[in-house]
User: Fold these one by one.
Assistant:
Number 1:
Amino acid sequence: MTNVRLTHVGGPTVLIEFGGWRLLTDPAFDAPGHKYPFGRGMSARKTTGPALRVADLPPIDAVLLSHDQHPDNLDTTGRGVLATAGVVVTTRSCARRLRRTVHGLRPWGTTTLEGPGRPPIGITATPCRHGPPLSGRLSGEVTGFSLRWSGQRHGELWISGDTVLYRGVREVARRLDIGTALLHLGGARHTATGPARHSMTAADAVQLCGLLRPRTTVPVHYEGWSHFRQGRIAVAREFSHAPPEVRTSLTWLPRGTGTQITV
């Protein structure tokens, strides 16, 4: 059995600590108030700043970067974190753009993190679709990550990445044993793309958890930006009507404070 310490910095950014490892997801550390272009007429304003500064972080062994093309997942300050991290794991196209030592994975590709005196971590890239069907050219390549290591009792730790609920995400439930799920939610929408959603809604999360059956479900990336349409209240309401095994899995992380999760 392993205890993992999760610290929600804000948005998609989570510090994951266990067994001597320090991993960071999607580093976004800019101050609030700025409006950012997302391409193709889309934009969003950052409304909430990070709970921790980059200076507050411990040395980072690896960054798990779902994608680099949107500033809510990798902003100007966050790019500085990449330069100091030991390893960056991301998509193949992002690896080409970053032009540094990066592990670029295709969907269902794997890599292993190894370090002296620490358990090896197997990383599997999981499918994402950051919008409606045929939106790949608009949104670009995105990935999720599933982490496995010796001593896990309840299954792998999965970070969904920015995605809608579709066949590729449902395949995670068929192929992997997920014990802890960090789900990117918020039901993101942009005026330029009308009613189309670019991330999962609360209802999507409940449906997906019915397939995954995780022991622990952690919502992230549902607040702090103007393009999110469903915050904590909407997520909590949807889960309150879910079957008991889904409802009781819901776990909220306080921003900026580490929380112990058993995996």
Number 2:
Amino acid sequence: MGIINEDSFIETVHMKGLQISLIASGDGTEVIYHKLDPGTRWGLEPANGSGVLEFFHILSGELKYKKNNQINSLKIGDVFYKSPVKEHYVFYADQLTEFIYVSSQPVFHHYSTISKELEDLAISIEEKDGYTVDHCSRISKISMILGEKLGLNTSQLFRLSLASFLHDIGKVKIPLEILQKPDKLTSEEWEIMKEHSRYGREILENTGLPTLIEAAKIVEQHHERYDGKGYPQGLKGEEIEIEAAIISIVDSFDAMTTDRVYRKGRTTKEAFEELIRCRGKMYNPDILDAFLELKEELIKI
């Protein structure tokens, strides 16, 4: 858009739907340029320390966010300022949007190292598991639509956004001969495969980043079942985090309707029928009902 001279960038990182570029840093303060593609979400989490400043100025496009069940909009020239941020905020760009973000604590390298590495890892795992490169993004997008329909608060949406994209990251520790086996797994192989949800929790906890540590619990639970017959802990009903219950449904739907190396995907009609058959068994009935109400919208994604 020509608003920022890219020669002034110290470092740039590209992630799915997002470009972030460090413009300046010093004394712990960073100035970061953000460019969000249409349909991309971006969030702020509560800051550590009473004196932490978070500020951004919209250069182009528009960011929307929910506050007290009201949709707020930030347009060109608008600013958002908190010192400190005391709650989670999830912003949504429905058009190409640019803004300058200023933080009094160094945050850029969390993006450029851990976040980027985890994103690349998640995508590579899904490709090895027979999915397309868009699988992670699709799971995240649908999960967020469902989470918003269910009225999740901003903290829950923030965790859901991270956990849905990284839900299968623990598969990096599963041997490829098991992950890519075209035939039915043996009982011993299946026990190894089931460990990926625990591995995912461990990987995210080991980053040391508070937001990923919060998402780790959800990643671990995304294969729990409403009737208590899931794994790894055998949780049931309301013992399962709502974000994990959402991912369970969305991931199942996407898995059923996706062509894999070893099988053809089901039709959306067949997938919906299978979900309904498992209502109250594998899936939380209230969440599934909300998902089914989105049927027409989901078919277009």
Number 3:
Amino acid sequence: MKTVIIGSNHAGIAAANTLLDNYPGTEVVLIDRNTNLSYLGCGTALWVGRQIDGYEDLFYTNEATFREKGAKIFMESSVTSIDFNEKIVHFENKAGEKSEESYDKLILATGSKPIIPNIPGKDLEGLHFLKLFQEGQEVDRDMSRDDVQTVAVIGAGYIGVEIAEAAKRRGKNVLLFDAMPTSLASYYDPEFTQHMDKNLEANGIELHFGELATEYKGDKRVEQLVTDKGTYDVDMVINAIGFTANSDLGKDHLETFRNGAYLVDNHQKTSDDSVYAVGDCATIYSNALEATTYIALATNAVRSGIIAGHNVGGTELDAIGVQGSNGISIFGYNMVSTGLSVAAAKKAEIDVDYTDYEDLQKPGFIKENAPVKIRIVYEKSSRRIVGAQLASTEDISANIHMFSLAVQEHVTIDKLKLLDIFFLPHFNQPYNYITMAALRAK
């Protein structure tokens, strides 16, 4: 059997590895428009902010590895069309040479594309997006210019907040804009985001929330950013307002979700029996919502690639759904979440309650210590846990994995009240904040 995979980042690579490592004799063809594969985009801000030595280790595999496994790879090649009836993929390389590959099974792993604000001045130099490795290189080069002193970041989600920190670490004046009233509003409730906002301000980032960009001004290169509330002199703009599914190749043939993502079943199969879709171009099932939705995360991409690979290879494997677990660390302040915030639950029309608690991570006699803030969100009727949020300068990241499992398995808030949680002063308190938060639930 011959499988063609379009796209070779996290989801495409996971699918290819699953097929090549588990199903001998399977013919695998990878087609990608980029110069490289397997780029860990989540490390871009660390590299641009000089928190790591370079970008080289942000690639976890290469073309040679796949060729050794027997895969055929076409890099810097753009797919121009797909004949779904004849099962043929048409593409051309950077020299304009046209080629085609037939397939028995097709896996679409085309990822997502940035949302581009359609406002005056959008073609000026000095305007950047941040997803691909090449875009990271452009941002890094531009930030190295002596005449770039003030950087505006539009969008205060994860990527925007991270690149704002990176620019500040490079000694720039940084202005962070978002239409929402706080940073990270898609992941956390205001009681949590207000602490991150204070952290950003304390580290010298100028916040402009509740503002919409309306125009870029300049002579060839951007010189000013205009919003609905003011005009700001800037030397560089980084757009990070979000992403949408890159589903252009199959949108006229395959069923799609409301945002354009390919609609897939729990085997990652699309409405065409020969076509699978994985990663950011496809839908996913949320255990918190108990519904199909769209969550663009690298971890979800890897899991979906593994599932598609096995199903294409002949082993039936069902997806178990996701919680959208995520985390961020900015200037030493750590936040993690999974499932739904109170605000997200309200938007989804799920009637929830929540329980909050705040305490030191360790007993008071431990010198290296800091407060931890926790919120557990649960559905009123069933009392099942649908989300959790934690924040601290301590490393509290591993806790979110338990809550992810709780959401997946429909664990109730009451089950946590007497959960066996160990105690040792080196790590935590005898009255653990998870236990205390659960006990405070109505």
Number 4:
Amino acid sequence: MKYMKEAEPSYTLSTVMEEAARCLLCHDAPCSKMCPAKTDPARFIRSVRFRNFKGAAETIRENNAMGAICARVCPTERYCELGCTRSGIDKPIDIGGIQRFVTDFEQQAQMDILHKGKPNGMKVAIVGSGPSGLQTAVTLLELGYAVDIYEKNAKAGGYLTYGIPEYRLPTDIVDFEIKRITNMGAEIKYNTTIGEDITMAQLKQNYQAVVLAIGSREAKSLPLFEGNPYMETAVSFLARAKMHHGQLELPDNVLVIGGGDVAMDVATTLKRLDVKHVTDVVYEEFNEFKASQKELLGTQAHGVTIIDGYVPTAADGKKVTFKHRHIDSQLVIEADKIILAVGQKANAAGLGLQLNHDEVPFTGYQAAPQVFVTGDIAQGDKTVVWSVKRGKEVATEIDQVLGGNQHD
């Protein structure tokens, strides 16, 4: 099935060496400066050039515990590849592709790179097991803390597990990353909701620090679709597709509303599930698209019809009416299924946390005594690589506040 097959083929030994040979080996490389997680692509590409794949894997892992995941889903054109000096000659180095080859090598060689530090006698609770929570756990474990992760779902990973389609991020890659972290000593408590199964007060009593690493997992909707039996949110659809391995019954005519990466995931997934007619209507015009260029081009390559600049103004069952934002134009589309991809929001119920537009209304990570925040609710980009950045930074801040290195 196309849904289960990775969209892009991985490099072979010969092709990865060919791509790495294009690197100019810049001194003070701009690509490394542009990576939010400081994964240091210049250094690991240099290792690949000398066939030191073990060294390349160590560079990636020591800086980015989500290295195999970021290799597949990071919008590299916005970060490391944007800074690539090679762009002035022809095109940037395929940094994500090289990183994927190295992390695949690491998995196949069963390398064991990440290790827990000497115990310092302190424990930290992490609420949420998305990428930021997982990276926070790794960094704290390396610093000697004991870590328990509280996850409300039956599986860890957050949107990595329940949202990103299989063809972009295979489940076995996510499971392997999580297994690596539990092998370090993190304990994940599944099916546990804070405020219901355990309270924040109990967490603060049992741990020296509590990290709220909740993601934006709840779908936003539009009032005009309330109660519409033909409508499903993107969050729901992508989760169903992933949990059922693409085995879904779908009509031949589906309308998608939204223009971000999630909307592109929905539209491409529908095509990979052999839906004949997929139309995506987008609020933004093409020159202001929110989706990454890679995601947009991939969606177009699958044959999705994308109509830009239109806002939904009415919905009557299967029929949706749109009006253009800038010109006197109206559009009516009738579809057997409507999928809304108009944003996501965080749910901070039971956490004692006030959010402003789904973010904490302050910079930094400490929200209250013993309580820290990271992930989507912290300020910054909502990408996996930024989640890694925030996870590393909040762990460092916790260590500075608790003085963990003084308890060896």
